[in-house]
Amino acid sequence: MQTAHWHYLEAAPKATGQLKVEMADFQVIEKLGYEPTGQGEHIYLWVRKAGLNTAFLAEQIAKFARVSARDVTYAGRKDKYAITEQWFSVHKPGKAEFDWTALNVEGAEVLKAIRHDKKLRTGVLKGNRFCITIRNLLNTADIEQRLNRVAEKGVPNYYGAQRFGDSRYDARGGNLVLAEKMLDGEEIRNRNKRSMAISALRSWLFNEFVSRRIADGLFTQTLAGDVMLLAGSASFFCAQQIDEVIGQRINSRDIQLSVPLWGQGELASQLAALEYESTIASDYPTVTTALEKLGLKQERRALRLLPENMSWQLTDDQLVLNFELPAGAFATSVVREIVDIQQHYEVD
Known about the structure:
Blueprint: E1 16-19, E2 26-31, E3 42-50, H1 54-65, E4 72-74, E5 83-91, E6 108-116, E7 127-138, H2 143-153, E8 155-156, H3 161-164, H4 174-183, H5 191-215, E9 226-230, E10 236-239, H6 244-251, E11 255-261, H7 271-281, H8 285-293, E12 299-302, E13 304-305, E14 308-314, E15 318-326, H9 331-336, E16 340-344
Parallel strand pairs: 1-16, 2-5
Antiparallel strand pairs: 1-7, 2-7, 3-5, 3-6, 4-5, 7-15, 8-13, 9-10, 9-11, 11-12, 14-15
C-alpha cells in the first residue's frame, strides 16, 4: 500500500522547502463553534500546548483532577511538534474547582476554565486556524501563482501524512504497515493501534478515490448520479441530472462533489457515478471487504478542500501561510500543492 503516487491537482510543485524546523512553525487554533454556558457538570479548559501529544496531556489532566481518563475528552488530536490551542473537557459534577495554574505539565498552559452542560465530543469542532512557516525555500518561480490558484480553486481533500503514522521507519507510515498486517490476518491487541490502523486503511482508500478522479479528469467535472455535500453540513443528495444550476451551486461553494468513505451498505451514488465508483472499488477487494467486516458504514467526504481566509507572506527563502479549514481537514494537504516538503523536523 503506497502513498507517493497520489496525483497533484496539476503538476507537482517545483518549489522545495522544510516544515517544522522550529516548534512555532506549525501553529493551530481550534474554532469550537459554540460558547460554553458557564455552568454544568463539565469543566472546559482552553489550553495552549507545545511539544505535547493530545492524548498524553488528557491523561495528565485526568490525574490532576483525580478523575478517570474517560472523563477527560477533546474534540480532536493536534500535532505534537507544534504550538496549538485547543479545548479539553473534564467531567466533574458539583462545585469543585481547581487551581489550573498548578497543572505541572511542561509545555502546557491552561488559558481559561469555564463550565458547560455537555461534554466535549470528538468531531464537534467547526474548524481550525493555521499559521504555517516553511523555511529554506528553493525554486520559487511559480510559488505565487500556486498560492493564488489554491486560494481560488482549493486542493484535493487528501488525508494527510499524519493519518498514516510515523514514517521514519517506513515510507508508507507506521499505521499503514499495521493495516497491512491486519489485512494479512495478524491480530492487533492494542486498542489504540488497532483503531489507528483501521482509520489509516479507510483513509488510504479514500485518497485512492480522490487520486483516480484527478487522473481521470473528474475533479471538477460532474457525473450523472454524483453525490453532492451541502456546505457546512453532513447532508447530501444525489444529482441524477447535471445541469446549469448544479454547476452554479458548485462554483458558489454551496455544494461539493464527494467520494466514498468505505464501509457496509450501498454506495449513495447512482447512474454513471455509481458505475465509476464501483469500478474503482473493484480494484481493491481485500480492502473494501475488510472495512465492511469491521462494521464501518458507507459515508461520504468532500472531494475538494477549500481553505478560507487564506493569506501569506513570501520572502526569498521563507513562506508564512495563514488559513482556516473545516474540522477533519489536513493543513499538510494544502501545503502539498504549493511546496515539495523535503524534510519534516520531528521530535520524540
